[in-house]
TrEMBL record:
Function per UniProt: May play a role in DNA repair. It seems to be involved in an RecBC-independent recombinational process of DNA repair. It may act with RecF and RecO.
Protein name as annotated: Recombination protein RecR
Homology family: Belongs to the RecR family.
Name of the gene: recR
Organism expressing this protein natively: Streptococcus vicugnae
Gene3D superfamilies: 3.30.60.80, 3.40.1360.10, 6.10.250.240, RecR Domain 1
Gene Ontology annotations of biological process type: DNA recombination; DNA repair
Length: 198
């Protein structure tokens, strides 16, 4: 069925979001059209504000509205441990369990030779720079249990081991092929408690 151009464009915009197919995009588009002008303006304002006001922490790479972020500036956190994750959603997932009290480092991607993504294409150099001038004695790698996650963890381990830094990996409470952001709190807690050295 052909829709008027404004609706078709709105549907197309929604399909660009991850996990949104044409049926869901169509439902969202028609729902949005049914919203009041005030609700639409508020929605648009929030989208623009998030895009304009958020940045990446210059220390850890986490998404934040202040730089450095509140985690990096929190003096009560254990500064001897850094948990390395793929993206900011993983930081939020780990914070929900309220059992990890160290620092983070967000890679913004994974090494993926098949997709032409190498170590220089992710936020890895800043991790190595951080470790040179810090009291960190353990790096916990918390990448997803996928081929790219494993490749990334092995690379980081090879780079850090000569520096005498203990490198551990989350325990296999996380199923192979699963994403950290979708794991429940108990699974994440077990994974962090049962991490293994690489």
């Amino acid at each position: 069925m052909l829709y008027p151009t404004p609706i078709a464009k709105l549907i197309d915009s929604f399909t660009k979001l991850p996990g949104i197919g044409i049926k869901t995009a169509t439902r969202l588009a028609f729902y949005t059209i049914g919203m009041s002008d005030e609700e639409v303006n508020e929605f648009a304002k929030n989208l623009l504000a998030a895009k304009r006001e958020l940045t990446y922490c210059s220390v850890c790479g986490n998404l934040t509205d202040e730089d450095p972020c509140s985690i990096c500036t929190d003096q009560t956190r254990d500064r001897s441990v850094i948990l390395v994750v793929e993206d900011s959603k993983d930081v939020s997932a780990m914070e929900k369990i309220q059992e990890y009290h160290g620092l983070y480092h967000v890679l913004h991607g994974l090494i993926s030779p098949m997709n032409g993504v190498g170590p220089d294409d992710i936020n890895l150099k800043s991790l190595i720079t951080r470790l040179m001038d810090s009291e960190v004695n353990e790096v916990i790698i918390a990448t997803n249990a996928t081929a790219d996650g494993e490749a990334t963890s092995m690379y980081i381990s090879r780079v850090l081991k000569p520096a005498g830094i203990k490198v551990t990996r989350l325990a296999r409470g996380l199923a192979v092929g699963s994403d950290i952001e979708y794991a429940d709190e108990v699974t994440l807690l077990r994974a962090i408690e049962n991490r293994t050295e690489l």
